[in-house]
Amino acid sequence: MRKKTFSGIGVTAGRTLCARILLGFAVVFILALVYVTARFTRDTPVDYADPIEHFKYGSVGSEHEFGVPYWLWQVLPVLFADKLPGKGYASLGFVYEDGHDLPIGVSKRRYRGFDVVWLNCAFCHSGTVRDTPDAKPRVIVGMPANTFDFHAFTRFFMSVGMDPRFTPQRVLLEMDRIGANLSWIDRALMRYYIIYFARERMLTLKGRLAFLDQQPPWGPGRVDTFNPLKVYFNFPMDKLPARELIGTVDFPSIWNVRQRDGMQLHWDGNNTSLEERNKSAALGAGVTPPTIDRERIKRVEDWLLDSKPPAYPYPIDPHLAAAGKPLYAQYCAGCHGVDGQDFTGEYVGKVEPIEKIGTDRHRLDSYTLAVNANQNTLYAGYPWRFKNFRKTFGYANMPLDGLWLRAPYLHNGSVPSLRDLLEPSARRTKIFYRGNDLYERSRMGFVSDVPAENGRRYFRFDTAVPGNSNRGHEGERYGTALSAQQKDALVEYLKTF
After folding, report:
1. What are residue 265's DSSP bridge partners?
2. Residue 244 CB neighbour total at 10 angstroms
3. What mean pLDDT value characterizes the chain?
4. How far apart are alpha carbons 256 and 253 in whole angstroms?
C-alpha cells in the first residue's frame, strides 16, 4: 500500500512537472510569436506635424520596395568612400540640415523589423541658394534640386553591389565603428540575411538599369523620367532604338499646383490630371502601385496646392523692370501668363509643337505610344487607375512663377541663365558647369563658369552631347532678336516673378 501510494504521488508529480514544462514552452512560444509579429509586421513611418518637414523627410511609401536598413545606408559611404566624388552623400548633392541625420529627400520607416530609409518627393524638389561664396546655403523647398546628381547616386549603389568588399564581416565592423550598437538579434539578421539580400537587390538593380551605360551622365538637377519606367514594364531595353534611350530633363519646380489644374503637365504635356501627375512622380522615388502610401502622399498634395515660391531677394532696378514689362507682354505673356502670379494666357499650359519651338527632341521621342499604353494600366482595379496619359508631339508652355530659381533653362536644362536664353542658340554658352548653388544676379542663373570650388568639382555640361542641345526657343517671336538693352530690361522685369 505504501509503495503504491508513493508510486501514485510520483506519477502525479511527474504529470504536474510535465504540464508546467509544456506550459512554459507554450508561454515562451506565445511571447516569441508576439515579439516576431510585433516586430516583423510593423509598418510605421516617421511622421512630422509640420507640412514642410513632412515634405522634406516624410515617407511616400518607397521604403517598401527599395528601402535600405538605416545603418547600412549610413555605413555605405564610409566603407566605399572611394566610389564617391567627395565625402559622404553630400558629395552627390544631397542637402543636410542641422539636427537631421538624414539628408532632405530621404525618409525613414519601421518596416519588417528594421528602420529602413529611401527617397521621397523632396529629393527632386528641394534646392539650395548661396548669395555669396562664403554664405551658408539656404534651403528652398519646391525648387528643382539643383545640386543633386541622381545618376551618380544610382550608379553608386549599383557599383557597391559589385564590390567584393561588400561582406557581412566588413559591413558589421564598420557599423561598430560608427556607433550602430546593434542588438544580438539585429546583428545576426544583418550577418546572415540582410546584407546578402541588400547585395542581391543592388545586383538586380544593376542588371535592370543596364541602359544607363548607354546614356551620357545626367549631371546634377536632371533625371530621365520614363526610361526607368520602361524597365518596370519589362521593355527590351537592349533592343530599343537609340532615339528612345535618352529622355533626360531638368527637375521641375512644383509651386502653385492648384493654378495648374487642367493644364498639360510634365515637360511634354502628357497628362492633365494633378493626381496622376503626382502619383507618377512618386514612381520615380521608388514607389510602386501596391506600396504607395496614399495617406501621406495626400498630405504632400494638399500642401503643394497653394505653396508659393519665394520672391526674388536681391535689388531690382524699378526703371529697367518697367521698361521690360511691355516687352514681356508682347513676346512672352501669351505662352507663359500675364506674370508670375497670373497664369492667364492663350497658350499657357498647352503643348507647343516641336517643329515650332525647335528644342531638343530626345525627351519627346523617349516617351512613345507603347510607354503611354502601358502607363495607363497602372493602378488597374483601383478607382484612381491612370487614364489621362497621352502621347504628345511637343513641349508644354509653363507658367514662370519662381523663375529665378529654375535655372538652367529649357526642359533639358541646357541654357545656364535667362540672359543666355534671350540669345540665338549660336551665341549661347556651349559648355558650362552644373551643380553650383551660388546665384548670379545679373544674368539670372547660378554660377556656371567655375569648374571646381573648395575641393568640389562641378559637372561639365556639353551641349553637343545627345539630349543636351541648347537649340530652339529662338527667333523674333521668342525675343532673341531684341537689342541688348531690351534683353536686359526683360530680364530685370522677370526678376519680379
Report:
1. 271
2. 20
3. 92
4. 9
